[in-house]
Task: inverse folding
């Protein structure tokens, strides 16, 4: 899905101007007049970032941020405010805002921030997809293969694993080869990394 | 008005009277006319009058006494039936006189001139009527010849009158005899001299002078007048009684029949003269006593009043009349000051007046003084009294109040300006943001046209810079006014609200409704900026006053009560209320229902209250009009204490 800048602002002129400016810089954008409309159309597949005004009728920018975090949405949120208010800024950043912009907005800074936010979102997305993939692979292991993975992950040698599992070292070799193939591990370092995932999954 | 005593006469009084009446008649049966009961001295008349005065319902005893005395002293008359008739008639006449006399305070000492005069008139008339009846009855009965009527009447009248004048008041004073004796003991020496003088006078009248021509009778006036001057009416009556008894005894002892009747007329003259003198002396003494009392009272007032009292008779020099004046104006005791030196700018015009002037104290201090003056005749001069009140403190208090009101007004204007700046910044920043953004977009769009018109892009850049400059100005404006935060202090909630309302009453010229304040008894202290709270309450009260301009029975109620960790100050009125279309936006800037309003009041008030941890909201009222609630944070330290 192509990354999009979702713009939430109650002022129609600002929505219009921002989406025009972003489109001229080659950024896809989608506008909403209030937080509720955005929440209604938002899906987990949405990629990009959220640019929202702080003061709005209905849900405020900070409240929207809180709702998103509560739902586990990791979309980066950039807040727009009419005037820099130290306490609001602190609250926003503690609440997990990506960044903060003061109106009127400098377009250079705006584009930097938005691109950073979109990159961040993409990175998070990739990382999560990778993680999900590796977890799926672990799922495919047989119980014996899992045990071998776990013991190797703890730093045991093949011989020690054999004693631990009361099987022959050769059989350990077989399990290890099959397990590494299933997980796509090229060397022992990969195996150790995968085993950490195993522990956290328990 | 009856001056008669309210208590009942004791039971022994009537029998005692009866005995005394008979005894007096017997003792005074001297120089009678044809052995009839017509004597020039009949003390029983005074006894009768006094007895009836004390016990008017016991007239039957008087009848009995008259009959008994007649029978015992003079024996059965020739016509026995006339006796009871005569007795009843005399008793009735005396009873009538008594009823009249009971309206007079005869049992007081000394007698007042008016009382004495009435007493004399009633006694004279009583003796005359009784005399006509008694003497007339003798004539009718044939006991007395008609030509002797006038002579007998004269004797009877003077005898009765003398006895009544002397005896009745003295007998009515019986309850105070003991007190009189005490007083006599105090004046014992003078009394001894008086008695000696009286004895000497009698000696001259009866031993040296010829009793037949009464040449020296006037000497007897001396002790009587002496007694009247010293002991007023009571003294005179006692002296007259002594002279009377002395005369009777003296005349009895003379070999020839002296004309007692003539002496009795002189006695009446003596008694009346003395009585007149005694009452005048008494009323003079009373007047002097009253004057002394008034003077003492006036002196006490003068000492007690905090104001200085000055007096002037010539209009230029001042005299201090009381300690307050001496403290303020007297450099040294007895020194006089000129009016001009004390009040440099005062003209005393008219008989009385008031003025607010500058006064100068003895130590040179000048102070604002409220003075009042009034003139009155003082001998040939006119004295003017000037009362001076130092109003320095009052003026200072008023000045402080004015300054407080003025600083509140300034703070209120500043708060409005601040809120205005905030609102303006917010409202204008939005279009400014859109403008800047559009201009950046336009600049990108203009890249394609840069070849045809090279000035287009720099122009758009300049337009963007200007828009940003305007936004920066707005920001500075807001920072300038938004800088001063609230100065919170711990204040008693009740006092805070009450003094704010008082302040509003003072400054509001257009108030139509009275403001009533109801508070809980024990309100905690709150932690607020006093001026900011007053601004908010002012706004609510003046909104209410404006809303009530057309109301029939305008009413504003302010209630202060505690709600958990807040004090709620509720302001409600019975006006038309907040229109529905405005209610949702009432606290936004530039929203107003008044034709000349700017719509800042509620916005300012709310942001001031929120800045100190309180709030301002619309509430549901009970009076039918608008209702607002200010919530103030309770001072938590004081919460523990209460």
Result:
């Amino acid at each position: 899905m192509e990354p999009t800048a979702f713009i939430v602002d109650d002022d129609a002129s600002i929505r219009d101007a921002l989406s025009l400016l972003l489109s001229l810089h080659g950024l896809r954008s989608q506008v909403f007049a209030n937080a509720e409309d955005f929440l209604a159309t938002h899906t987990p597949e949405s990629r990009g970032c959220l640019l929202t005004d702080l003061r709005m009728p209905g849900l405020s920018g900070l409240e929207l941020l809180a709702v998103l975090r509560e739902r586990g949405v990791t979309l980066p949120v950039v807040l727009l405010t009419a005037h820099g208010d130290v306490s609001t800024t602190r609250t926003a950043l503690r609440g997990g805002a990506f960044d903060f912009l003061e109106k009127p907005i400098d377009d250079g800074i705006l584009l930097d921030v938005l691109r950073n936010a979109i990159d961040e979102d993409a990175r998070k997305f990739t990382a999560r997809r990778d993680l999900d993939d590796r977890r799926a692979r672990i799922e495919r292991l047989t119980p014996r293969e899992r045990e071998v993975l776990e013991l190797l992950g703890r730093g045991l040698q093949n011989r020690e694993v054999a004693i631990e599992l009361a099987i022959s070292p050769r059989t350990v070799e077989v399990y290890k080869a099959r397990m590494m193939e299933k997980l796509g591990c090229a060397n022992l370092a990969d195996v150790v990394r995968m085993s950490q995932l195993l522990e956290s999954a328990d | 008005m009856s001056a008669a005593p309210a208590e009942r006469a004791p039971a022994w009084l009537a029998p005692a009277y009866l005995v005394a009446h008979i005894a007096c008649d017997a003792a005074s049966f001297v120089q009678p006319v044809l052995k009839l009961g017509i004597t020039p001295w009949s003390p029983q008349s005074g006894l009768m009058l006094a007895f009836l005065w004390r016990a008017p319902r016991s007239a039957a005893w008087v009848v009995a006494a008259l009959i008994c005395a007649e029978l015992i002293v003079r024996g059965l008359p020739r016509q026995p039936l006339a006796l009871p008739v005569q007795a009843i008639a005399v008793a009735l006449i005396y009873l009538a006189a008594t009823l009249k006399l009971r309206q007079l305070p005869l049992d007081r000492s000394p007698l007042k001139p008016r009382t004495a005069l009435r007493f004399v008139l009633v006694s004279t008339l009583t003796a005359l009527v009784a005399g006509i009846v008694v003497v007339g009855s003798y004539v009718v009965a044939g006991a007395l010849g008609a030509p002797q009527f006038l002579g007998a009447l004269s004797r009877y009248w003077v005898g009765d009158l003398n006895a009544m004048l002397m005896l009745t008041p003295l007998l009515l004073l019986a309850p105070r005899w003991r007190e009189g004796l005490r007083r006599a003991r105090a004046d014992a020496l003078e009394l001894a001299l008086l008695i000696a003088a009286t004895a000497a006078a009698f000696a001259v009248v009866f031993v040296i002078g010829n009793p037949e021509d009464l040449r020296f009778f006037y000497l007897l006036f001396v002790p009587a007048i002496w007694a009247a001057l010293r002991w007023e009416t009571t003294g005179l009556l006692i002296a007259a009684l002594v002279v009377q008894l002395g005369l009777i005894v003296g005349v009895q002892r003379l070999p020839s029949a002296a004309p007692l009747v003539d002496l009795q007329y002189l006695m009446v003259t003596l008694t009346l003269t003395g009585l007149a003198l005694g009452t005048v002396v008494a009323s003079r003494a009373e007047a002097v006593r009253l004057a002394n009392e008034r003077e003492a009272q006036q002196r006490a007032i003068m000492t007690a009043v905090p104001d200085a009292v000055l007096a002037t008779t010539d209009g230029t020099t001042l005299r201090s009349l009381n300690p307050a004046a001496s403290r303020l104006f007297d450099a040294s005791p007895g020194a006089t000051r000129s009016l001009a030196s004390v009040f440099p700018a005062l003209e005393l015009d008219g008989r009385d007046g008031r003025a607010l002037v500058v006064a100068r104290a003895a130590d040179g201090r000048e102070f604002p003084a409220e003075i009042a003056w009034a003139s009155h005749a003082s001998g040939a001069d006119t004295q003017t009294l000037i009362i001076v009140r130092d109003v320095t403190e009052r003026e200072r208090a008023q000045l402080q109040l004015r300054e407080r009101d003025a600083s509140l007004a300034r703070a209120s204007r500043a708060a409005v300006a601040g809120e205005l700046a905030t609102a303006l910044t917010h409202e204008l920043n939005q279009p400014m943001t859109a403008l800047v953004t559009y201009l950046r977009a336009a600049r990108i769009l203009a890249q394609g046209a840069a070849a045809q018109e090279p000035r287009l892009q720099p122009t758009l850049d300049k337009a963007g810079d200007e828009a940003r400059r305007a936004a920066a100005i707005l920001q500075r404006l807001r920072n300038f006014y938004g800088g001063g935060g609230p100065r919170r202090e711990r204040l008693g909630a009740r006092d805070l609200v009450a003094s704010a309302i008082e302040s509003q009453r003072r400054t509001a010229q257009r108030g139509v409704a009275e403001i009533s304040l109801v508070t809980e008894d024990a309100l905690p202290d709150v932690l607020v900026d006093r001026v900011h709270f007053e601004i908010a309450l002012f706004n609510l009260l003046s909104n209410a006053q404006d809303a009530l301009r057309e109301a029939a029975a305008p009413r504003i109620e302010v209630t202060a009560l505690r709600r958990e960790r807040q004090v709620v100050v509720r302001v409600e009125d019975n006006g038309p209320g907040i229109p529905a279309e405005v209610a949702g936006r009432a606290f936004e800037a530039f929203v107003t229902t008044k034709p000349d309003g700017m719509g800042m009041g509620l916005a300012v008030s709310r942001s001031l209250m929120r800045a100190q941890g309180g709030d301002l909201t619309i509430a549901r009222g009970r009076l039918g009009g608008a209702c607002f609630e200010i919530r103030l944070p309770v001072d938590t330290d004081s919460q523990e204490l209460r």
Notes: The longest helix of chain A spans residues 107-139. The longest strand of chain A covers residues 48-53. The CA atoms of residues 108 and 114 of chain A lie 10 Å apart. The mean pLDDT of chain A is 87.
